[in-house]
Amino acid sequence: MSTVNGTSEMPGQARSDKPEKVDFSSDQEIRWCPGCGDYSILKQVETLLAQSGKKKEDVVFISGIGCSSRFPYYLDTYGMHSIHGRAPTIVSGLRSVRPDLSVWMVTGDGDAMSIGGNHIIHLLRRNVDVNVLLFNNQIYGLTKGQYSPTSPEGAVTRSTPMGSTDHPFNPLALVKGADGTFIARSMDRDPKHMREVLARADAHRGTSFVEVYQNCNVFNDGAFEVFTEKASKPDHVLFIEHGKPLLFANGTKGIKLDGMTPLILDLSTGAHSADDCWVHNERDGFKASILVRLFDDPRLQGAMPRPFGVFYVADRPTHEEKLQAQVKRAKEVKGPGDLDKLLQGEHTWTIG
């Protein structure tokens, strides 16, 4: 009996060519803190890759700097652990020359929303075909607990001992403002939901942006507890699905739009029903702009549940498609390229 990728194989037994989760796991020791939410995300990504039938040599993971950015080490695919905030530039270059690959970008709230903020908005507006996973734990974990661009006002951290005075970024509102074509949110403590969202993101052509609420149990433990704990989750989480009404609290409450203002309906009294509620349309960009800000609207603070799921999907040509088409047209007009001629230029002169 032999062992292949950790599985036993009897002599003469045919081995399935279908990838398994273990095929995407590297031999590197995983060095996240015990109990970190990153473990859950890694497992769901490995599972999705196996289910997708992709060959690992056709998959690339690019990351910046941070706890989340160790991802390329832990997956047996091609990958690169780049520099702080610059993963979008590496991704853009790779996609420009290898549009055949499945490319993923793993980043954190500090990596993407701070030093990488300028790069991420241009990745989004160009619609580069990549799956972006933003691990949001509202803290700088790798550098030991400083406040991040998504930390709430008043957050007491190593760098804000008297409480943060900064107003935080809403990552999905920023993505919507940059004309992102796929906007979604999930959480580390709901693996089934995360797999479904990741599968949708992977199937999208263009920049898929998935924010994942991820618990840093060392420096910001319990930041999202109200959304993940069994007792509080029904009243504080709104799972949105295309074509379905916005319901929460086990179906006893719903949300309707009064003009542009969301209102909570009590469905338990019989005065209202699901038919009176806002029906989610993931293709409606106007309503998506309201939905991504549902919980941080000052008029609604503390009243509304937080949405999870796919907020918005749009079809738009990708950066690579337009680039490749332009290169093709240039070859048709000017013929094959000549590097020496290009370097010489069209206007030269000789100095005697």
Task: Tell me what you see in this structure.
By secondary structure, the protein is an alpha/beta fold. It is globular and about 90 Å long. The chain contains 12 helices and 13 strands. Residues 1-15 have low confidence and may be disordered. It has an 8-stranded mixed sheet with strand order 4-3-5-6-8-7-13-9, with helices on both faces. A 3-stranded antiparallel sheet has the order 10-11-12.
At a glance:
The chain has 352 residues and is an alpha/beta fold.
Question: Which descriptors apply to this entry?
Answer:
352 residues; alpha/beta; disordered N terminus; globular; eight-stranded mixed beta sheet; Rossmann fold
* Principal-axes shape call: globular
The strand line-up of the biggest sheet is 4-3-5-6-8-7-13-9
In total, the number of domains comes to 1
From the 3D structure, determine the CATH topology: Rossmann fold
By helix and strand content, what is the structural category? alpha/beta
Summarize the main sheet: 8 strands, mixed
Number of helices: 12
The name of the CATH superfamily reads: Thiamin diphosphate (ThDP)-binding fold, Pyr/PP domains
Distance between the termini: 79 Å
Helix content: 25-40%
Strand content: 15-25%
Count of distinct strands: 13
Unreliable stretches (pLDDT < 50, length at least 5) are 1-15
Average predicted local confidence, pLDDT:
91
Q: How many whole angstroms does the radius of gyration measure?
A: 23 Å
